[in-house]
Amino acid sequence: MNYPLQSATSNHTPAPVFALNSALRSCSGCSMHQICLPTGLNECDTQRLDKIIGRRKVPRDSFLYRIGDPFTSLYAVRVGHFKSYQQNIAGDRQITGFPMTGELLGMDAINTERYQCDAVALEDSEVCEIPFELLENLFAQMPTLLHHFHRALSQEITNEQRIIMLLGNMRAEQRFASFLINLSMSYATRGYSATRFQLRMTREDIGNHLGLTIESISRMIAKMRRDGLIQVRQRDVEILNLSALGKLASGSEILVSTPVYYPKQ
Amino acid sequence: MNYPLQSATSNHTPAPVFALNSALRSCSGCSMHQICLPTGLNECDTQRLDKIIGRRKVPRDSFLYRIGDPFTSLYAVRVGHFKSYQQNIAGDRQITGFPMTGELLGMDAINTERYQCDAVALEDSEVCEIPFELLENLFAQMPTLLHHFHRALSQEITNEQRIIMLLGNMRAEQRFASFLINLSMSYATRGYSATRFQLRMTREDIGNHLGLTIESISRMIAKMRRDGLIQVRQRDVEILNLSALGKLASGSEILVSTPVYYPKQ
DNA sequence: CGCGAGGTTGATTAAAGTCAATGCATGTGG
DNA sequence: CCACATGCATTGACTTTAATCAACCTCGCG
Question: Which residue ranges does the record assign to the HTH crp-type domain (chains A, B) (predicted)?
Answer without folding.
Answer: 170-243
